[in-house]
Specification:
The protein is an all-alpha fold. The chain folds into 2 domains: 93 residues, no CATH class; 112 residues. The chain contains 10 helices and no strands. It is rod-shaped and about 95 Å long.
């Protein structure tokens, strides 16, 4: 529809006899665009999901370091690993919780690991970098969640189906108006516009056919020049 708008503007609204329809159509297309953006969701959600995968990957590496420490030849490392293992039992269900609960638990775990007795144990098993990375990613998740919530609070509601019904109705009316003008005034003044519009519609149909297994949605076309 944005391509249709561009073609109409290039050919001039007045020439096509669409003065009474075009402003409402532009508004309807703008509303549909907003609805599509709402339906697709926030970019922050994708970032959060990517960070969660990394956080849990690094948490898995941290747990492996604890396991390795339990089998270490140095008894001080073994003791450190046992201390961290006992702490881990407190968070044994952390990966089975909701995203919000996980963020809270990882924040609490990071706080506990900074306590002197645990910080020394983390150092002994060689997990300082990993625990720091887990906290860093968890903090970033929290920031993105806050940003997403703020974005959602000001984002307008939108329903793609309802918006598209309005757009399609006005579009079809304008096509009928153009076709009527062709019948009344001849094709000469409209030929270039119609050729370009039908070419774009054909390209759209081909794209949709590839994406949907050759199931083309009906799109109104202007009167052919032949």
């Amino acid at each position: 529809m944005t391509e249709f708008i561009r073609l109409v503007l290039d050919s001039t609204v007045a020439k096509l006899g669409l003065e009474s329809y075009f402003p409402g159509f532009q508004t309807a297309v703008d509303a549909e665009t907003v609805a599509i953006e709402v339906e697709h969701g926030s970019m922050f959600t994708e970032k959060i999901d990517e960070l969660i995968v990394l956080r849990e990957k690094y948490y898995g590496a941290y747990l492996k370091l604890i396991d390795n420490g339990l089998d270490h030849f140095d008894q001080t490392v073994v003791d450190a690993a046992k201390l961290l293992e006992r702490l881990h039992t407190k968070y044994s269900l952390i990966l089975h919780k909701t995203k919000a609960e996980k963020m809270t638990d990882f924040a609490n775990l990071s706080g506990e690991l900074k306590k002197p007795e645990y910080a020394d144990a983390v150092l002994k098993i060689g997990a300082v970098v990993w625990t720091a990375k887990i906290q860093e990613i968890n903090d970033l998740c929290t920031v993105h969640v806050d940003s997403r919530d703020k974005e959602g609070s000001v984002r307008p509601d939108g329903n793609v189906h309802d918006a598209r019904m309005v757009v399609d109705s006005i579009y079809n009316t304008m096509i009928e108006r153009i076709n009527a003008s062709v019948i009344m005034n001849g094709q000469a003044d409209y030929a270039e516009f119609i050729d370009q519009l039908n070419l774009k519609i054909e390209n759209l149909k081909n794209t949709m056919a590839q994406q949907q297994g050759a199931k083309n949605s009906p799109v109104a076309t202007a009167t052919p020049t032949a």
